[in-house]
Structure formats: C-alpha cells, structure tokens
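queue> holo job accepted (iron/sulfur cluster)
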Amino acid sequence: GLPEVPARPLAERRVSRRIQVGPVPVGGGAPVSVQSMTTTNTADIGATLQQIAELTASGCQIVRVACPSQDDADALPVIAKKSQIPVIADIHFQPKYVFAAIDAGCAAVRVNPGNIRQFDNRVKEIAKAAADAGVPIRIGVNAGSLDKRLLEKYGKATPEALVESALWECSLFEEHGFRDIKISVKHNDPVVMVNAYRQLAAQCDYPLHLGVTEAGPAFQGTIKSAVAFGALLSEGIGDTIRVSLSAPPAEEVKVGLQILESLNLRPRRLEIVSCPSCGRAQVDVYKLADEVTAGLEGMEVPLRVAVMGCVVNGPGEAREADLGVASGNGKGQIFVKGEVIATVPESKIVETLIEEAMKIAAAMAAE
Ligand code: SF4
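queue> job finished
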C-alpha cells in the first residue's frame, strides 16, 4: 500500500538563495522544477504556443525559447502573455535582445557569458532593467561556447574553467547589486558536469539549473542525464533541471519528472513495478506491462501497480502494491490492497487492472 511515512529524498537540499521565475520559485528549498525548451521557430507564434501547450500538459513548469533574431524578439510579448507557464528568453551574442525580452514580459532571461559580445559595458543597464522588472537572469555557461580567455587559460572546458566563467559573470552583476541569478555550467560529459556543479555549489549560494548539454538521442541522453542529475541531486545539489535530448521536448519533461520522482524529490505518481520476466514467466510480461502503462498514462494519483510474470515474487510484490497481478498458468490473480479480488484469464488482465485502478483513483480523489 501507500507508505505510511512520507518518502524522503536522499539528502538535505543545499541552501541556496531563492529567485522567482514568474510564479515558479527556484532555490531556497523550493521543489526542484522541470523545464524544457521549444524547438519551433520562435517567430512562428502559433507553432511555439502550440508546443508550449503540449509541454505544459506533459508537466513542464518553465519553458525556454530561443531568441536569435529581431523577428523572434518581436514574437516574445505574445508568447510571454499567452503561455500558461513562465517563459525564459534564451539570448546569445546580442545584448539588445535581453532588453527586448525584459520589455516583452518574459519571466527570466538566459545569457551565455561566452558569447554575449560587448556585454561588459552594458551589464549595468541590464542589471537595472532586470531589477526594475523583477526578472532574474540565468548565467548559462556551456562547454561548447566557453569564453576564449578561459579556454586559453585552462586549455579546455574543465570544471574549473566553467565555474570561473560563471562566477566571473556573476561578479559583474554583483557590482551593480544584482543577485537575482541562477547558474548553469553544462558539459556533455556527465563526469565533468558533476564536478563543475559540485565546485560551483561550494563556491556560491545561487540556485543551480542542472543540465548535461548535447546529451544525445533519447536513450543515451536519458541515461547521461539520469546519472549526472542523480549524483548531484542525491547530494542536495540542483534547484531546477533540464534534460536535453535529441527528441521532442515533451520527452525531456517525462524524463525529468521521472528522475525527480525516483529520488523522492517529487511525489510519485503512477509507478509500475513489473518484473523483467524470465524462463518461469507464464504470460507475456513485456506486453502486459506496456499495456497497463499505456492504459494508465496521465493518472495523477500515486499508484503502485505490480505486473508480475509468475508466482515466485508475484504474489509478494502484488500484495505490496496498491494493486497488481501475479500471473500463472494463463491466468492472473488480481490483488487490490493486498487482497485477491479476482482470478481472470490472461486476456482480461489488463482491462481488469485498469478498471480497478480507476476505482482506486476515484476513491482517492473523493477523500
Ligand atoms: Fe521470473 Fe517470476 Fe520473477 Fe517475473 S516474477 S522475473 S517471471 S521469477
């Protein structure tokens, strides 16, 4: 059944300052938030808002949009106004778009210290505009676009180089009293990335945005991100996360949410406890697990559903879950809260589980 004691994360969260990305607090003990980035042409307002709506539906809490041209900057006011979640404008090279994004009502702005040309002499103005509008800034350092000066100093994008770049940029803002900052130091190598964030976490109290950059296609990117975020979050480091995949952004959100749920940093929702199957299985466990997962997708109440291939661990796991099936002999014993409520033929297992799950969900919602 449901755990009696509230599930706890592995570590206390690192103490960080809190910033507000629109209505979403980041840092200072706020729940770790999940963000993603649109892949549409930002200037195509309809397509961008459509993708933001899809991301919102998938559980995304903050969305970033690229702003590489004046047409994109011109689209920001409508996007910021109509998006259901706070919008961060992602700015490289051109400080003028930072002002445009702030004027447009974006909830935050991301700048890359490695490639904002003529940035230095405009920090004062940017800090003032951002402070006046209550807009925080993400200092987003990326291994692939590291400041040339630091690349020369360190030879490559080492953790030290990434951290120095970020903190140097912060110091420029701090000179003007601006501290509404979050930081990222992304690298495509999870080991370098973890070391960079550990060093950064020790050297400042800004909230941290975690990301493994260019993590790759869905499978590799999911593993790299899960391993790197897992290492950091299990030490209490990280306030908001973005999984980068060469895949549709809603997939990034799913992975991000699952990482946080796995670490008890978010309440678990649907959890399928299914066995890997083995020579003892008497039903098609993969098919069963896939069908049950698909049938229950989108379920918001926390539910642990066991799908077990045989009677060895089957009854035990099925009893521990809210509901489950222990299969044997072409049949399935359906358990609800530890009690066998029915024995059904294999062809009826999925529909019976889904029916029972709906009943439990309705009862939970009514409580
Ligand atoms: Fe094999 Fe049964 Fe365990 Fe599934 S529950 S892995 S079928 S022993």
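queue> The mean pLDDT is 92.
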